[in-house]
């Protein structure tokens, strides 16, 4: 049987001086060699625009059951062109959607965690192909954090934590939300939940350019103005847009839920009342939830603090924090009417 060549570290490399040197610098060599390997240039698959359109149609219709029907053609195209960042990211988002809104499933088995790992896999591909895209970077870091936690991998956790900081620096208004949202997966008394409230407040400050006004109607109007912010990045992260028709409403629902979980009912009430007064609240497909939240402030503290055990199917989003519910993604992304 032919021996593998020495440069691949095969048996013929032996245990001489070279072999020892190689052992001593093995991990440094790997790091250097990896860093010197060029990254591939992104290439677009000819079907991407059409597949992208199909993806948005399914997400904005909130049609969770159709995830596979769009995932399979996108995966086939990605395998033909694995250098397409848009296809890679869309696969990441589909796996992310499936695992995040698992409350919709009749039965949730332990294999649902594979979607989380695959989301990380595809977000990593998208990030590698478009390193300067802060959305891909943030989602890659977020799913890497989740994956490292599930698989109890402290080294990956440290790495993903550092990645998350870089992603936040690249687009704070957007990525601070991604990480604040994830803290719902932690026990409620973990310090990072309180930090999440500070981060959500920081986003508001950046989005409305000031501290929130003390009246709910003024606060609602200030939030609504971000839909028309002159700065494109601010408008996209803070306002309601074609891609995210109810971003403001989903953001405020999660802020209220995060405060309830922290037991700060006074502020939570103010936040839900503000949400109710935002211009597009009535058009939001989930507007009925706001009133239920206001009626159940006290009882929701216990409900939101107790994370539902992985595997509990439950379709009703009214008594679960948004993050754990069937509207964890579509709460912001579902359009008023199916596109
Ligand atoms: C608080 C509201 C909110 C929630 C919740 C939310 N998103 Fe988004 N999403 C946004 C915003 C804001 C953007 C940025 C839009 C832009 O770039 O114009 C975005 C961007 C996206 C994009 C487009 C990325 C791109 O490549 O341009 C996809 C796809 C997406 N989200 C899917 C999801 C999925 C899946 C979930 C659930 C795991 C989710 N979102 C949860 C607000 C939200």
- Distance N terminus to C terminus? 61 Å
Order of helices and strands: HHHHHHHHHHHHHHHHH
The helix-and-strand class reads mainly alpha
Our estimate of the beta-strand percent is under 5%
Biggest beta sheet attributes: none
Per the principal axes of the C-alpha atoms, what is the gross shape?
globular
In angstroms, what is the radius of gyration?
Answer: 22 Å
The averaged pLDDT comes out at: 91
List the ions, cofactors and other small molecules found in this model: heme C
Which stretches are poorly predicted, pLDDT < 50 over at least 5 residues?
1-15
- Let me know the number of strands: 0
In DSSP terms (H or I, runs of 4 or more residues), the helix count works out at 17
Q: How would you explain this protein's 3D organization?
A:
The chain is mainly alpha-helical. It folds into two domains: 44-170, Alpha Horseshoe (Serine Threonine Protein Phosphatase 5, Tetratricopeptide repeat); 172-339, no CATH class. 61% of the residues lie in helices and 0% in strands. The protein has 17 helices and no strands. It has helices spanning 17-24, 26-36, 48-61, 67-80, 85-100, 113-129, 134-150, 154-170, 172-182, 191-208, 216-225, 232-238, 247-261, 265-276, 288-295, 297-305, 330-333. Helix 4 (67-80) packs antiparallel against helix 5 (85-100). The longest helix is centred in the middle third of the chain and has 18 residues, at 191-208. The radius of gyration is 22 Å and the shape is globular. The relative contact order is 0.09. Mean pLDDT is 91; it is low at 1-15. Residues 89, 93, 96-97, 100, 135, 174, 177, 236-237, 241, 243-244, 247, 250-251, 328-329, 331-333 line the site of heme C (HEC).
């Amino acid at each position: 049987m032919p021996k593998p060549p020495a440069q691949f570290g095969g048996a013929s490399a032996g245990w001489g001086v070279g072999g020892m040197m190689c052992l001593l610098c093995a991990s440094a060599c790997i790091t250097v060699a990896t860093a010197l390997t060029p990254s591939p240039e992104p290439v677009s698959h000819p079907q991407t625009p059409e597949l992208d359109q199909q993806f948005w149609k399914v997400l904005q219709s909130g049609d969770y059951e159709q995830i596979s029907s769009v995932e399979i053609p996108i995966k086939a195209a990605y395998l033909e062109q694995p250098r397409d960042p848009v296809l890679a990211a869309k696969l990441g988002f589909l796996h992310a959607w499936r695992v995040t809104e698992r409350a919709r499933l009749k039965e949730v088995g332990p294999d649902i965690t594979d979607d989380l790992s695959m989301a990380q896999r595809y977000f990593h591909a998208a990030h590698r192909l478009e390193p300067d895209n802060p959305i891909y970077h943030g989602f890659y870091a977020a799913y890497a954090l989740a994956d490292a936690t599930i698989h109890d991998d402290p080294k990956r956790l440290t790495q993903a934590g550092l990645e998350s900081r870089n992603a936040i620096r690249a687009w704070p208004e957007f990525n601070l939300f991604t990480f604040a949202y994830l803290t719902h997966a932690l026990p409620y008394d973990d310090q990072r939940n309180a930090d999440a409230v500070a981060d959500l407040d920081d986003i508001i400050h950046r989005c409305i350019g000031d501290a929130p006004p003390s009246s709910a109607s003024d606060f609602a109007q200030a939030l609504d103005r971000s839909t028309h912010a002159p700065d494109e990045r601010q408008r996209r992260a803070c306002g309601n847009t074609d891609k995210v028709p109810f971003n403001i409403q989903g953001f405020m629902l999660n802020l209220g839920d995060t405060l309830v979980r922290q037991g700060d009912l006074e502020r939570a009430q103010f936040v839900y009342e503000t949400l109710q007064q935002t211009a597009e609240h009535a058009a939001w497909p989930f507007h009925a939830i706001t009133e239920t939240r206001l009626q159940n402030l006290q009882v929701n503290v216990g409900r939101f603090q107790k994370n539902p055990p992985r595997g509990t199917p439950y379709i009703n989003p009214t008594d679960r924090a948004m993050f754990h519910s069937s509207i964890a993604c579509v709460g912001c992304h579902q359009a008023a009417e199916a596109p």
